[in-house]
Write a structure and sequence with these properties.
Rossmann fold; Quinone Oxidoreductase, Chain A, domain 1; globular; alpha/beta
């Protein structure tokens, strides 16, 4: 089969690999019909995530058709069209029993914090991902679900991570009716977080970014107020002005480890790798939220220390909620929101690339060329 293969920071190729085999009776092999490149894939591409090994295939957002099933799989049949959450989880451990699928205790021998994730380095289990023609899906009876007939392919693939993560970010904010919500980042996750904030009762939604095409999308897709932080001496001061000098009720941090806005933090966090990424977005969140407010963090960071203003968070009495998204837990409600047109994930898709052109796709997405907001990958498996 053809698959994207990591060869080092900023170096990826499409190479021939063996079609994955059934390794456990509860595995399934999925023929990928549509995949996506996630903003967090760029952290791997840029060399920010530890233990990203040569030969690894990225891709945790994908849908496909069941190609083969193990002998104990009962819920899937060959030919089923399925969507696969980015979390790999057993469905039966202490965490899974409580819906914390992203923290499954049985799928990642390399870490005690996060569970398994497709195509996201060996720190999340070393599983190959779906930017390929075929992918092995463990615990096939508890992860994948048949895709509803009414659902558009592009909505389905985005629900496997980006859209679900945006929705989860709004959930983490514990939004009360009438709250002012600030979303940091107008990428795919931030756009859905802004849409979801309205569904959860927000009275005002503000989105902050530096790219005009993404801010325009936030206005048209999420009906949000937008601010380009490069146009202000201090975006935190501007947010205070916008909220009667109290601060927002809720801030959703949807940027993660490669946040711009501070040259020093960006260099130490993303170039010198002295931190697990640039903490500037986290610090803006802490400074922009009101005392007693809530921050929801869904931006991705590496598992090493960051220069975060934790003392300020303590002294302001903030609630910080965060986690990798337990995707499948969000789906029942999200499916209805998508079906009713309240959430519109595919509206943010700007580019579609053939798998053979994935190196160009990563370059375009990384450099934010041609107004790229969300790129999809078409594996075209035979």
């Amino acid at each position: 089969m053809r698959a994207m293969v990591y060869r080092g920071p900023y170096k990826i190729r499409v190479e021939e690999k063996d079609i994955p085999a059934i390794e456990h009776p509860n595995d399934a092999i999925i023929r990928v019909t549509l995949a996506a490149i996630c903003g967090s894939d760029l952290h791997l591409y840029h060399g920010l995530m530890p233990d990203t090994r040569i030969g690894h295939t990225f891709g945790h957002e994908f849908i496909g058709v069941v190609h083969e099933v193990g002998s104990s799989v009962q819920n899937l049949s060959v030919g089923d069209r399925v969507m696969v959450p980015f979390n790999i989880f057993c469905g039966s451990c202490w965490y899974c029993a409580r819906g914390l699928y992203s923290n499954c205790h049985n799928v990642n021998a390399n870490a005690t914090a996060v569970g398994g994730i497709y195509g996201y380095s060996h720190t999340t289990g070393g599983y190959d991902g779906g930017q390929s023609q075929f992918v092995r899906v463990p615990f096939a009876d508890v992860g994948p679900v048949p895709r509803p007939d009414w659902m558009h392919d592009e909505d389905a693939v985005l629900l496997t991570d980006a859209a679900a993560t945006g929705y989860f970010g709004a959930q983490l904010g514990d939004i009360a009716e009438g709250d002012t919500v600030v979303v940091l980042g107008a990428g795919p996750v931030g756009l859905i977080a802004a849409q979801s904030s309205w569904l959860m009762g927000a009275g005002r939604v503000i989105v902050i970014d530096q790219l005009e095409e993404r801010l325009a999308k936030a206005r048209s897709m999420a009906y949000a107020e937008t601010f380009n932080f490069t146009e202000y001496d201090d975006i935190v001061v501007e947010m205070k002005k916008q909220t009667d000098y109290l601060g927002a009720d809720v801030v959703i941090e949807a940027v993660g480890a490669e946040a711009d806005g501070s040259f020093l933090q960006h260099v130490t966090g993303t170039k010198l790798k002295l931190q697990g990424g640039s903490p500037i977005a986290l610090n803006w969140a802490i400074d922009s939220v009101r005392k007693g407010g809530t921050i929801g963090v869904v931006g991705a960071y590496g598992p090493v220390p960051n220069a975060v203003k934790f003392g300020d968070a303590l002294n302001k009495g903030l609630t910080l909620n965060m986690n990798q998204t337990p995707v499948k837990r969000q789906w029942p409600r999200m499916f209805e929101h998508v079906r009713n047109g309240h959430l519109t994930p595919r509206e943010m898709v700007t580019h579609r690339f053939e798998l053979e052109d994935i190196a160009e796709a990563y370059h375009v997405f990384s450099a934010k060329l041609d107004g790229c907001i969300k790129p999809l990958v078409l594996p075209s498996a035979a």
